[in-house]
Amino acid sequence: MDLADLTAHELLDLISKKEVSPQDIVKSCIERIERYEPIIKAYLTVRDPEDVINSVRDNEPYSAIPIAIKDNILVKGLPNTCASKILSNFIAPYNATVIERLNKKAFNIIGKTNLDEFAMGSSTENSAFGPTRNPWDIERVPGGSSGGSAASVAIGSAIWALGSDTGGSIRQPASFCGVVGLKPTYGTVSRYGLVAFASSLDQIGPITKDVTDCALLYSFINGYDPNDSTSLDIEPYRYSPLKGDVKGLRIGLIKELLAEGVDPFVNKCIEDAVRTFEDLGAIVEEVSLPHISYSVPTYYILAPAEASSNLARFDGVRYGFRASGKTAEEMMSNTRGDGFGPEVKRRIMLGTYVLSAGYYEAFYLKALKFRNLIAGDFKRAFERFDVLISPTSPILPFKLGEKVENPLEMYLADICTIPINLAGLPAISIPCGFVNDLPVGLQIIGPVFSESKLFEVAYGFEQATPFHKRRPQLGGKPYGL
Amino acid sequence: MLSVEEVIHIERLARLRLTDKEREMYRRQLNDVLNYAARLDEIDTSNVLPMYHVLPVTNVLREDVPRENFSQEEALSNAPLKESGFFVIPPILGGEE
After folding, report:
1. Could you report the per-residue pLDDT of B56-87, keeping only the tens digit for each?
2. What pLDDT digit, counting tens, does each position of A256-265 carry?
3. Active site residues of A
4. Considering only CA atoms, which of A307, A299, A255, A306 is closest in space to residue A422?
């Protein structure tokens, strides 16, 4: 194992004991980038290695732990493309609030990671700059949309990363890449400086190698921000060492998310996870959330509707790519037609349609009602259970190109993660098994503001299982060289 | 079933120029998704309230006091075309039809 294979808390421990040179940690990640980036392609921008090494400062331990940032979170002075041609030349003029918070701890940003264009997708194949590959099997996708962030952590080209999650975009790639990902409670992490996709659903969150790192990183980014009008002015989460006691914990296994369409191998891993929790003294029972199966149609009306409105700002006037046109309107239409990729156009079309006169009530308003029904299902379930569990993804990481021709099929695979965003809840994905060396993720869902409980439950499971210790092996040598 | 005319109508509302090929593809794919979304008709929701937002917050305002913001130069730093401190765009009127 190299330093790049360790977790942030292990490295911080070594730094405090002076058993490792901080520069060597950074160099270890840079070496991973040089070795694997040509094939994994997790990054859209990598900072100059010299600058990254020179950013290490004495008495600032976090400056020695490289972090990767999804390329839809603004870092002042660095490109922010959202993996779109329309922002291919955009340089961020300010920092997102999460970046300001990390800067206070002297965090060392190693690069900006690949994503599905504007975070729309579940495979990172919708990037205008080419797909990222899964470090566990380079013929397969890393999941998405935060596929670059998840892959960078899995391969060790960053120790930890930030992603964003609108319908599963942190948890599903974490699951596909065998790492930990948290989608926080809506309103706990500022969205200021996150390029908006669907504002009522988007949240920034950590992607890490284990639960302790996840809790640590979350403690730095959460908290009230007056620059985000949907940020909640509540007591923020503060990190304290996890214990992982789940004795007597009431866990609800969501029946509908283990039904048709779930890969039998994934099902088997979830059954094993249930047994692990029972062995640890938790009480696991099935629970039915009757409206949860309506989540996919609800989401694919609401999210595109919000996106079609949010993406109206990309018109070639103030920033980004501009196509030619005889009039302003023609220029705008051409800019958007040439600048956006197929999935983004599909969602803008869908969103514009469901918001247009005559269809608003039949689609958009109806979906808002289902959102209420789905949130109500969770509320009732949490009267009986402390946390709920399900697979993070019903399927294993799939092959590149396998689903690009059928958008609806790709949308249906988001069934386990989407309902959590609709209800505004926190959920964490942790590794819970492997099928032919492909990772499987377990999703643990809690009531609003239950992050500290989620960390305890996830930590209890993690400490009883070996999965978080595995690292992908790319044959021991640089692929294709 | 969405017609080509409807697709062209949405395209205009969205200020999104599509090719004929894209038009046909989106017509087909949007139909797939909308047909699937018709599942939401399975349940009577006439007595259910719409949930516009998960947070119980409304009308979040800030004090109306000036604060530091972008300089004109910073605000224009990413502009595709600028002149004398302004964004430059093609004429709004004329040219077509």
Report:
1. 878 888 889 998 889 999 999 999 999 999 99
2. 999 878 999 9
3. 70, 145, 169
4. A299
Torsion of Cα atoms, B12 then B14 then B15 then B19, to 10°: -70
Pick from A97, A45, A48: which is nearest to A71 by CA? A45
- Strands A250-254 and A283-287 turn out to be parallel
Count of helices and strands (H, E) across chain A = 15, 11
Q: Which tokens is A353 given?
A: 């349609």
- Cα–Cα distance for residue pair A311/A197, rounded to 1 Å: 7
Place of tokens 């605000």: B75
Domain formed by B1-41, architecture: Orthogonal Bundle (1.10)
Amino acid A174 reads A
Backbone phi and psi for residue A445, each to the nearest 5 degrees, phi listed first: -115, 140
Contact (CB, 8 A) for A327 and B92: yes
Phi/psi region, residue A124 (left: phi>0; alpha: psi -120 to 50; beta: rest), is: left
Task: Provide the 8-state DSSP code for A363.
Answer: I
pLDDT at residue A408 in the model: 85
Distance from CA of B80 to the nearest CA of A (A): 6
Q: What angle do helix axes A22-40 and A147-155 make, rounded to 10 degrees?
A: 120
ipTM for the assembly: 0.94
CATH code, A199: 3.90.1300.10
Spatial distance between the Cα atoms of A183 and A447, rounded to a whole number of angstroms: 12
**For residue A145, how far is the Cα from the chain centroid?**
7
Q: Is A420 helix (H, G, I), strand (E, B) or coil?
A: helix
Angle, helices A342-355/B20-37, rounded to nearest 10 degrees? 60
B24 touches A: beta carbon within 8 Å: no
Hey, is the C-beta of A379 within 8 angstroms of any chain B C-beta? no
Q: Indicate the number of domains in chain A.
A: 1
Residue A296 belongs to some domain of the structure: no
Residue given tokens 């790492």 in the structure block: A179
Q: Is the Cβ pair B55, A232 closer than 8 Å?
A: yes
Domain extents in chain B: 1-41
> What value does the mean pLDDT take over residues A303-323?
98
Q: What is the mean pLDDT of the segment spanning A301-307?
A: 98
Cα distance between residue A32 and residue A356, in whole Å: 49
d(CA A318, CA A307): 19
Domain range enclosing A230 = 3-252+381-469
Q: Is A12 left (phi over 0), alpha (psi -120 to 50) or beta?
A: alpha
Is residue A476 packed enough to be buried (19+ CB in 10 Å), middle (13-18) or exposed (0-12)?
A: exposed
| Chain B residues within 8 A of A321 when measuring between CB atoms | 80
Are A185 and A174 in contact, with CB atoms under 8 Å apart? no
3-state secondary structure of A189: strand
| A144, A145, A149, A150: CA torsion to nearest 10 | -20
Which residue in chain B is spatially nearest to A228 when comparing CA positions? B60
Give the CA count within 13 Å in the CB-facing half-sphere of A112: 19
DSSP state of A263: -
Q: Give pTM, 2 decimals.
A: 0.97
CB proximity list for A368: less than 8 A, separation 6 or greater: A302, B50, B51, B52
